[in-house]
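Chain X:
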Amino acid sequence: MDHIELNIKGKNGIVDKHIIKHKSGDETKDKFYHRTSNQFKLFPYSTKWSKAYYNDFQYFNGITGECFRLSLNKSLKIKLERGENYSSKLKSLIISSAIERTSTVKSHSFKTILEDLFFQDDNLYCFDRSTLPYLSFKNDNSTLKEISAFIHNVFFDDEIDSEATREIETNQNVLYRVIKDSLPKLKDKKTNADIKYFTFNAEIISLFKNDFKFISSDETFFLNNIDKLLKYYYFIYVSQLILKLNDFFDEKIHPIYFTIEKEVVSNTRLAFQNGWAYLEKRVGNIFSHANALELLNYIEINGQKPKDYKKFKELFVNLNDTDQEQIVEKINELKEFYKSKISKPNIGWDECKNQLKIDPKYKGMQTVFEKAVYEFWFTVNFQFLNTERKKPYKDYQLWFAEFCKANFLKRRGRIGYTLALNQEMLLFLTKLCVGVEEKIRLNSLWKRLANRGVHFDESSRVEIVKLFEKINLIEKKSDSGDAQYVRRIL
């Protein structure tokens, strides 16, 4: 017989991790705290969002730099990392060290030369990949660092770490070598290899690795575009993860449609309906998924945790009838325990049952197991929407929604936002698709973009072709897509 357990009161159980004794007057009560990433690391977000972090999503240098520090198992020294004016402090350290390393008499003139050549508004110019680990955040924040750790954990393996940090042999002049030698030493960092984020899409991760290696073959291109690569793959990976979570047990494909910045878009367009309007509806509930799956992972089947919904179902279907009944009982036990410890929704639990009965997704589920899992998630989501916890629920998803606004959304008047690629990102993704070939068919470009998660409707494709013709990227033998070629971008 299989061993099935719901760890509520044991060591590292729900009570241990989520219940805190709370004193109110003379009475002491149990208070439930929603805490994610103890049992199941899904998203890197917190419930404390601030608009101050928006610039770091646009800038992205801090996240890029942290990814490269993680590849090296290094961190910035405390005197650099903490406090304000990181860029000016780094600049001062580099220039003072460079001056000490040279025997020039006119140190003031030499300082001016270094400032003009290697810094812009106090920011170090990344002329070599050894400078990338010195990129830092505009705001020192633990969640921004955790997003970096998420990107590194999901996309980087030993091979990518090695490629990211390899020494490039170049014929750099003496000033470049002086600046490289003057970079302050990084601090060794201890990492916990056991703490891993759940990875769900091997195809996207494989494409990232191939594209990483491709851009790494050209050092200048790599330095100028590594932030775009990280931005894009982070976006498409999390977007698809969110869509899959909202599918629960269904196997669906979700093409995400983009527009380009300088085109007219109506709300009847496929690019609108299957773009941000489609994704935004599903982004809002990610805190409920993170918490529901965190708690479901206190159930163990022969020592195995459920992980996500689909993997839970895979474990379930391999059990005999008796054990399957026990699993459903454990899910219902978890739900009742949760309801007993959480503050009552302001419209009551009966309303939760009423709304569940008419929920289309619940009504469409086929098995008692699927309904039990969905009902537990629905209960978690319902209480967030109908208690004082609505604000942290909203703030949690803002970490991704605001990233999208900073990089991949454009406001289109009355219809609101659409997913949009600016010309720079469009050309970057096009170069990835063409790769080392001299040219590819236009129809092949659409397919290769789609493989990377980028879909365009016909109206956007027409506008892209016009742009490519304008900048001389199209080689045209006829109006047919099969007889039009996209040249390699130099």
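Chain Y:
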Amino acid sequence: MAYPTPNNQCWPEPVPYIFRDFGVQLLQPHQITILYSQDHEVRRMRMNQPHPAQVTPSWHGDSVGHYQGDTLVVDTVGIKQDRPFAMLDMYGTPYTKALHVVERYRLIDYEAAKGAVERAGKENVRIPGWGPQPNYRGKGLQLQFTVEDEGVFTTRWSATVTYLRAAIEWPEIVCAENPHEYYAGKDTAVPTSDKPDF
């Protein structure tokens, strides 16, 4: 879900809310670039560098990464909060400028990934058409992230998201103009008029 603005534009989703997207692609080598299926958002992480002394807040924050063995570890700070609904998730959980997120990405074997995706399907909302590719038996991508924000939470918390290769190609989505309700599998009735109302 993106946030429509009064002038009909969309705001990117903050970290970690962006992790609820159904599609994700990681590109590398010199920096990590993540493409998210929701509104084709793009996020970049510098590798093997520290955060700058003064971080300029941005929609996805300042992200730096490094490898610990076969695990990509990404540290993010400096996430913008100047929007009407500065929230971490679809439930409205707020955050402050102290938000700090650490992500750990690793490949896991097919059986472990399949089990995690099946459990998530029972516990969470399933979006029609976004299931895994039926004949795929390769590895899955597991993301474990930890959130801390002393301005909101009394302790840090963690969650895990597991991805398998998607059964469909990414549809083109334009937030300001696309009337297709991906969650209902139909188009929204767009209001029309026979004559101007001004």
